[in-house]
Specification:
single chain, 124 residues
């Protein structure tokens, strides 16, 4: 049992590190898109941020499901489920019926772009 607890802790630590890295990647992608004035790249960055949010949402929802002994879960099953949730979240963020977070981010960032182009004195 202690091995499972250590594995779960290591898994959560790895997820936290990945989230921190992805947040840094988001900022880099936004900066690159702004430098290139590439709205497509900005839209992709916003979709990735929404996918990250959805992935966290799915992960927390799964934690709320009571565990039972009838269908025990192995480490491989948990890893597979995490990978599947990641793919689900990417597809959900790309779908037309997404949560709308990417669209709101995109609109806000493009509004900031236009304001910065119109008045170079504005600093974000």
């Amino acid at each position: 049992m202690k091995i499972d607890a250590l594995t779960a802790t290591a898994s959560q630590l790895k997820k936290n590190q990945q989230l921190t890295a992805k947040n840094g990647d988001f900022q880099k992608m936004v900066d690159q898109a702004q430098e290139k004035q590439d709205e497509t790249q900005l839209k992709e960055a916003c979709q990735q941020m929404e996918a990250l949010f959805i992935n966290q949402l799915l992960s927390q929802m799964r934690k709320g499901i009571p565990k039972n002994d009838l269908l025990p879960q192995s480490s491989a099953t948990r890893i597979f489920q995490d990978m599947l949730d990641t793919e689900y979240s990417k597809e959900m963020a790309k779908s037309p019926d997404n949560l709308g977070i990417a669209d709101m981010l995109y609109q806000d960032l493009t509004r900031n772009w236009k304001a910065a182009v119109a008045d170079p004195e504005i600093k974000e």
